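Hi there. Long-time user, first ticket. I'm pasting a complex I've been working with (about 806 residues overall). I'd like to know whether the download I got is complete or cut off, because the file seemed smaller than I expected. Thanks.
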Amino acid sequence: MKYVDEWREPAKARRYAEAIARVTTRPWTIMEICGGQTHSIVRYGIDRLLPEGVTLLHGPGCPVCVTPAGVIDAAVAIAARPDVTFCSFGDMLRVPGDGDSLLAAKARGADVRIVYSPLDAVALARARPERAVVFFAIGFETTAPATAMAVLQAEREQLDNFFLLVSHVLVPPAIETILGDPGNLVQGFLAAGHVCTVMGYAEYEPIARRFNIPIVVTGFEPIDLLQGLYLCIRQLEAGAAVVENQYSRVVRREGNVLAREALAKVFTVQAQQWRGMGEIAASGLGLAPAYKRFDALERFASGPAPRERPGECIAGELLRGRKKPCDCPAFGTRCTPEHPLGATMVSSEGVCAAYFRYRPRQAAERADGANPGRGAP
Amino acid sequence: MCLAVPGRILDTDGDDPLTRQGRVDFAGIVKQVNLAYVPQALAGQYVLVHAGLAIAVLDEQEALRTLACFTEENAEEGDA
Amino acid sequence: MSDSSFTAPACPLPAGASDIIELAHGGGGRLTCRLIDDIFRPAFGLAPDDFTHDGAELGIDGARLAFTTDSYVVRPLFFPGGDIGSLAVNGTVNDLAMCGAQPLYLSVGLILEEGLPIDDLRRVAASMRQAALAAGVRIVTGDTKVVERGKGDGLYVNTAGVGLLRAPRPIAPRRVRPGDTVILSGDIGRHGVAILAVREALGFETEITSDCAPLAAAVLDLIDGGVELHCLRDLTRGGLATGLIEIARDANVTIELDEDRIAVAEPVRGACEILGLDPLYVANEGRFVAVVPADHAERALAHLRRFDAQAAAIGRVIAPERASGVHLATLGGLRELDWLSGEQLPRIC
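Hi, the file is complete. Here it is re-exported in full:
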């Protein structure tokens, strides 16, 4: 068992696709919440294996896409300080705020480093006591425990040159926002397997009951996704609305208790801005009072985060499942990965970028031949 | 939303609650991984790793069960 | 729950994104292509076929020569399996080889940053000599400039090269035909992962070494063996996918790839899984594709396997349905590959 290849076998995947076709009698609209799942769906062509009428919507589960522009602007301002070494996950570097991206700041001389883990940033702070090392803590419940561990290690070692710019977000409030929207189209959810690895899935049970909607905790490989969709559609066809766990090789109902304890210790739940969706109550994590001294915003106070400006981008409607990238008049024409109008195009995990990368023909059709770099026939 | 990859623990080091770590093999690449959130993990087991920390031990029985549960014979009822 | 009747989507326009040079302009993808099409092609009065290949073919007094140049800005200067010196020699040797030429002479231009240790320069020079010897070329002229501290990453290298064309017929995308076979000379992704692992200090215990190597001997062996070569392309930045997309675009054909025939070494695959990279887009420095008529494919493979046992036929050329491009078979049908936008960065998600 290697836990990867087994879930990519084409013959098996086709059998699961057939099983889905057998149980489907009506059109259904299902949202996968997680950007990693969106990536797999488009990369492996999972949506094309589904019966006519089954529609997948792609939810607000790309941490890079939902990080507010104001926070990115703050990151760029902090990174530009000569005494700061700024550490970030790789894919965050390309995303612009209202102004520049971290990559542009780096090009202008800012000390911006890609790290694989927040613990690498702690190691850097340990090794370079003369520098202020700031870690850009973005991501969902999966990533927050890594940030928490970085804080706990820095606290124990009494590092006074390690800081965090925190913009962690929580999934269940976003799901409730989408389901509570009067224009909601979503009839079933695939919950994000790695978020539930940490948090478990007990908190999804009241949501399934309250909104009478099936929620299937699902993994990330092609066969995981097909199994998750099968379970979800089977519930929809039967009129059921419970939480099921497809990803049982990893996810337990209670999640990872130690990780959850670390989250409870280091963070407090607070209101949070989501790029493209606005503010959602109790949907973010901030440093708890006992850990405020690690807060980069307090240390390098750079004024209040500006509100987002409206623009042409329909990311908000995409993230709420009201539209798909192809519904956007700018997709593939005025909005491309090189010159994105919104974060869903700029992050490689964003739904528009995934569509653009793996479905360039659709983008080309949109462009009506107006896209010179694409090699028209 | 979160790229997490399974890898096999080669060996573990220390038992400190914050810094316990192990060498983990990801299909040929070996890397140090923090094991603080999976204190029960042993060498030889597979862990799911995200951003340098293991967040779960993979359950082989469950893996085999879910792989088998949709095969041709029982796809109709699809029972888990 | 606040703002549940949300109506105003709020993604800002990045300011002035298109009127300055960005890193992605050097990435070998769509933006590089646009620089050539929008600026160099009109400015230099280029013919449609110019700048679509790794080098230029020159006819001088009956001699058929290939001429090319390339600049090297790799960081770090030294990495497992090579350094900026061997890279600069092999890169230009390989560009000449991709024209079907026997590489003969190189020039070396060095831009040194104030403060560079002389020892580093000595190591790089020795490595260039070694690489030139191995590739059978002579370094015959050069230039050195020094820039102030902070104006360069230690050392930049430009090499230009001249070779004697040995292929009996031109090797260029326009000769690619539907029905041709696409052959890959070995496994992919080593160089990009090796560089990333060192540069970003990713802490891999397993060392992945760059595939940096001269390709001229393999190409000349194909030519001497009588293999009809329609197109050759060495796979550098942007990887296999970018190389094939360029060929498909310039030849106005569609290329269908069999992903399971494309060799990726286990540690490279593991590193790509961890970092969320697609090996098809990861850089190489010692791999190339050959597009040959289907009835020459077996012979081409027999020759290439003398140099690398993993050489394989990985796809075929078909007539374009609507637009040219590269298609990869997936579970749900063909997926079209697109240019990369700038360098691949490790993903958290």
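A couple of notes from our side: The longest strand of chain C covers residues 101-113. Chain C touches chain B at residues 202-206, 208, 265-267, 269-271, 273-274, 276, 347-349 (CB under 8 Å).
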